[in-house]
Amino acid sequence: MTDALLQVNDLVKTFGSGDAETRVLRGLSLRMDKGELSALLGPSGSGKSTLLTILGTLMQPTSGGHVMLGVDLTTANDRALTEFRNRHIGFVFQFHNLLPDFTALENVIFPTAVREGRETAAARARGRDLLGRMGLADRVDFPSTNLSGGQKQRVAVARALMNSPELVLADEPTGNLDRASAIQVMELIGQINRDEGTTFLISTHDEKIAATCRRQIVVGDGVVTG
Ligand SMILES: Nc1ncnc2c1ncn2[C@@H]1O[C@H](COP(=O)(O)OP(=O)(O)OP(=O)(O)O)[C@@H](O)[C@H]1O
């Protein structure tokens, strides 16, 4: 039997109150095992981003909760959550959020350098290695503004992997890319998943992109429907 990476139990998330209340997650439960490569599908507004934000410990649910790597993240305090997030979770968003005046390598190592208070040779080596694995060995010292959309998104994936997180949460990482770049990003994610055993949960509207993942998790009416 494979090990559980995370277990989500009866997650409820409500925004607003009274007439303006929106009940987005309505008792969602989900288990993910270590090493999964999963797509998260569902209609617009079904709560995919909300779920990713809660799993990333960036927002608390209204009720229910989740346990990751044996840690109950519902009851943890802010400081413990920040530490947990930094160590175990990586994020990729639809818009890469790269710093335009920084090179590809500087963008990849910047969050780690800020956290550690310095830029170490080990961090630079890890950053270079990851950019190489993203097919960007010849773009390491390019300012990020000079990179194509697909290249920028591959830098963002490398940045998310910098601390060797067990889980990477990606919110429509290919939503802004042409088909060829989207497929390339997914192939590289697949390679990292195989080589490092990193677990990925990737939201997408694109069935073809979802089909490149081993598992498809479908959200509808605030619960997992498939
Ligand atoms: N901070 C918030 N305050 C109020 N409502 C919110 C908030 N965040 C999300 N919502 C609402 O929750 C619902 C789910 O939003 P969410 O972004 O999670 O959906 P999604 O499945 O990711 O959608 P899409 O595929 O369009 O990105 C939407 O109706 C949205 O308007």
Automatic annotation (TrEMBL):
PROSITE patterns: ABC_TRANSPORTER_1 (PS00211), ABC_TRANSPORTER_2 (PS50893)
Upper taxonomic lineage: Bacteria, Pseudomonadati, Pseudomonadota, Alphaproteobacteria, Rhodobacterales
Spans through the membrane: none
Keywords noted in UniProt: ATP-binding, Nucleotide-binding, Transport
Single GO molecular function: ATP binding
Pfam families: ABC_tran (PF00005)
Keyword Electron transport found: no
Full protein name: ABC transporter ATP-binding protein
Record-annotated ABC transporter domain positions: 6-225
